[in-house]
Amino acid sequence: MNEKLFQHVNWDKMWEATVETLYMTGISTFYTFIFGLLLGVLLFLSSPGQLWKNKLVYGVTGAFVNIFRSIPFIILIILIIPFTTLLVGSMRGPEAAIPALVIGAAPFYARMVMIGLREIDRGVIEAAKSMGAKTSTIIFKVLLPESMPALLSGITVTAIALVGYTAMAGVIGAGGLGNLAYYEGFQRSRTDVMIVATVIILIIVFIIQFIGDVAVKKMDKR
Amino acid sequence: MIQLKDVNKKFGIGPKTIVAVDKVNLEIEEGEIFGIIGYSGAGKSTLIRLLNGLEKPSSGTVKIAGYEMSSVSAKELREARKKISMIFQHFNLLWSRTVKQNISFPLEIAGIKKAEREKRVNELIELVGLKGREDAYPSELSGGQKQRVGIARALANDPEVLLCDEATSALDPETTDSILDLLTSINERLGLTIVLITHEMHVIRKICHRVAVMEAGNVVETGSVLEVFQSPKEAITKRFVSQVTEPAGTEQVLAHIPGGTLIKLAFVGEKTEHPVLASLIRKFDIDVNIVQGNISHTKAGAYGTLILQLLGNEKDVDMAIAYLHELGVQTEVIDNE
Predict the structure, then answer these.
(1) By its UniProt entry, which InterPro entries does this protein fall under (chain B) (predicted)?
(2) ipTM of the predicted structure?
(3) Distance between the two ends of chain B, CA-based, in angstroms?
(4) Given CB atoms, is B109 within the 8 Å cutoff of chain A?
C-alpha cells in the first residue's frame, strides 16, 4: 500500500533532504543565537537610560537590525551572493545557505533579545550596581540569567522561522526539504512528494517547539 | 561618617529642570540609625542614591566612609559600594537564583573563593533567620522573607553603612515590625551605621536615633527623634508626628465635643509618670474630661499626648493651664469652634 500511496517518493532522497534541512537549521540557529545575542545586548545597553547609553551606537545598531529584518528573505539570499561566495566558496548547497540564514534571522532575534532584556526590573540592575558590580558582571550574572526564559522562547520562535527560511533557500539550490518539495514535487506535479516533505517539516517544527517549551519551563523560576 | 555639604541634584536641562535635592547639609554619625522622612517626591530617594553614587550630585560634596563620592574614580566607586550597601522597597532579588545564591552574589562580585562564600552565606542565613529556606527561589518567599534575603545580601561584604530605601513600605505592619527589629539588632551587634528613608513616622519612631524631615528637596528640620516628637517646628513635621501620636479620627472626635476648653498636653520621658491629672482636679475647681490619650515609645524614651476637656469658669480654667505650664508640661489650647 505504501508503494502505491507514495509511489513517487524516494525515501533515501527524502532522508537526505531531511538531514540537510536539520543541518541548515541547526547551524544557522547556533550562529543566530550568538550574533543575535551580541546585537541584542548591544542594542539594549546603548539604549537611552541604560548602562552604555549612546545615541550613535544605538542608532547605527538599530538601523542595521531594522534594515536586515525588513528585507524579504528570498531577496536577501540573492543580494548577498557575492558575500556568500567569498565566505563559503560556492553559492550552492546547504553550507551556502547559512550566511543568508544567519543574516536574515540574527536581527530578528536581536529584537527579541532586546525585548527580553527590557523586561528585567530596573531595580535589579540598580541593586547589582549598588553592590559594586562591573558591567561585564551585570551582563553575565544579571541580564542573561534573568532574561533566560525570554531568550529561550525567542530562539525557539527564531529556529522555527529558520526552518521556513531553509525551505525558501532550497528553492534557489540550497538543498533540503524545500528544494525537494519544489523541484521533485511541485515542478513534476508529484503531490505525494510535496505532502511528505511538508509533513516532515511540520514534525521538525513541532519538535523544536516542544523542546523550547520544556526548556523555558525548566528555567523559569518566577 | 557621612557628610553632605551644599548638595544639589538637578535633573534635565533648561526650563524642564527639576531640582530634586536642594542645598542639603547633613551630618550622620558612625553607628547611628538616621531616618529621612518625607512624602513621595520630596527628594529622599534621590538623596539616598547620592550616598552610594547611584546618582552624582550636580554640585556640593558627599563624603561617606572615607570616600568622597562626588569625585571617586569608577574603580574606587565599586570598592566604596562594597562598604555601602543598600536594601530596597521591592527587594530587587534575582528571581533566577535561590536564597543562597542571591546572598552569595555580592561575594562573587567581590571575588571571594567558593568555600569561603559558602561559609559566609550560612552565617548570614542564620543571622537573618532564614534557616531551612536556603534553597527556595524568591517567588516561593513571603515579602518579609524576601527582605530578609535583601538584608543578608546587603551585609555579605561587611559594610560600614546600610542604606534602606523604603525597606518596609511594601510590607504589612507586623512584618514591618519584625524587619525593623532585625535592623535594630544588626545596628547594635555590628555597629553598622544605618540611613533609612521612609514616609512612615512609625518607622522613625521605632528605630531611629535622629531624623531629618524633607520637603521639596530641602531638609526642613533635623534633630533627635524625641526632640522632634516633643516640639516639631515645621507644619510638615507636625503632620508626620501626628501620624503616630494621634489615632486616626481625632479630628472627628474633637468636632463632637461641645463646650469647655480643649487642651492638648504633651509629655516627654519621665514626666509621663507624674500624676498631673490628679493634682489638677485637686487644686482647681474644674471638671476634667479625658477625650483622648496616647503614649508612643521612641528609641530615646516615651512620648505621650493627652487631650482634655476642661469645664469650669474661665478664671479657674486659665489658672489650671498656667499651672500646667509651671509644671513644665507642654500645653496647647485647641480651638474647637
Answers:
(1) AAA+_ATPase, ABC_transporter-like_ATP-bd, ABC_transporter-like_CS, ACT-like_dom_sf, MetN_ABC, MetN_ABC_transporter-like, NIL_domain, P-loop_NTPase
(2) 0.85
(3) 50
(4) yes
